[in-house]
Amino acid sequence: MPFPIKEVRATYPALADGYAYLDGAAGTQTPRPVIDAIATAYRTGIGNAGGAFPASHRSDAIVAACRAAVADLVGGQPGGVILGPNMTTLTYRLSRALAGPGDEVVLSRLDHDANVRPWTQTGATVRWAEVDPVTGELPVEQYAGLINERTRVVAVTAASNILGTRPNVAAIAELAHRAGALVYVDGVHATPHGPVDMRALGADFYATSAYKWSGPHVGAVVADPALLETIRPDKLASSPDTVPERFETGTLPFADLDGVTAAVDHLAAMVPGQGSRRERLLASMAAAEEHELGLFAALIEGLETMPHVTLYGKPARRTATAYFNVAGHTPRQVAEHLARQHVNVWNGHNYAWELTGVLGIRDSGGAVRAGLVHYNDRSDVDRLLEGVARLG
Ligand SMILES: Cc1ncc(COP(=O)(O)O)c(C=O)c1O
């Protein structure tokens, strides 16, 4: 069955403004059920968690439902879903509890800085996994020489947010686990682009952000609750000491969490299906991935035929994310030109700090990123290609 792109697009009110939204890698638009869920939560009345009255019970139920939804999305357990403002904040928090001076951590130059700097700033000794600057691949073989018995954490992305590279995380995790290290996977860019199974990836921690997959600005890190029981983060004396609550500082955004659940339900329902929500998510996200990669083939083919375009990376397994420069124009000028044609793209290093350094373009303004998500269609791709062609 073809991906029901018209129906999917119709659920996103923002898409009606006529822009081609190719900026999804920096945050997706929001479908109606998510907007409605958040508004309904506020309208119905919500209290702080743990109280004796119904409005508080509603917040407790929202949190529980949200943990179950995120667990379904990534293949984790609800009791191991840590919720918070965004991936960066949660990663800073966890990194402090997981590593420190005397430990070693293995980081990759493929990663978004949110899975790099929190670890370098723990004071642990850093060992770097390098990226092939031509292909944009992260070769697995190097990890055997980087991991040893002092390695506490191997932090690696499930997909690059600029090149789309999907490294072989499972193979990296196997090497890490053999040495007794923990694997912290940044799933922020990968999660919206296909089915996720954090256990198959070998992720001890899987980080994701709902605003990249049609939800509100909420982050989550998912781990085995039994593992979380062994970790003691900094926390207030008065806050719960239970798992996963002890990893969550302050009050959660209850209405937004209801939006997160609605976003997961929305993703699960993009294509008609049966079975549990987890099963429907796997089928729906597989269909979305096929849809995105089909469009992406046309996008890449179009850019490749333009002599004035330089494309970065050619990884074998990738998300539908293109990163390119246009001769004679800065990335910002290209983005401004495309904005005038009502095409949204990003320009800059996009926080892929190490990777844009490897590519030698960090100091010259990075490049242009055009990313596809499930709600993009062929006309979005054509409009991008027409806009870039005009710069030749
Ligand atoms: C791959 C990747 N990791 C981490 C982040 C940071 O996520 P957050 O904004 O939730 O902190 C981003 C955001 O763009 C990202 O693309």
Automatic annotation (TrEMBL):
<dbReference type="InterPro" id="IPR015424">
    <property type="entry name" value="PyrdxlP-dep_Trfase"/>
</dbReference>
<dbReference type="Pfam" id="PF00266">
    <property type="entry name" value="Aminotran_5"/>
</dbReference>
<dbReference type="InterPro" id="IPR015422">
    <property type="entry name" value="PyrdxlP-dep_Trfase_small"/>
</dbReference>
<dbReference type="InterPro" id="IPR015421">
    <property type="entry name" value="PyrdxlP-dep_Trfase_major"/>
</dbReference>
<protein>
    <submittedName>
        <fullName>Cysteine desulfurase-like protein</fullName>
    </submittedName>
</protein>
<dbReference type="InterPro" id="IPR011340">
    <property type="entry name" value="Cys_dSase-rel"/>
</dbReference>
<feature type="domain" description="Aminotransferase class V">
    <location>
        <begin position="21"/>
        <end position="384"/>
    </location>
</feature>
<dbReference type="InterPro" id="IPR000192">
    <property type="entry name" value="Aminotrans_V_dom"/>
</dbReference>
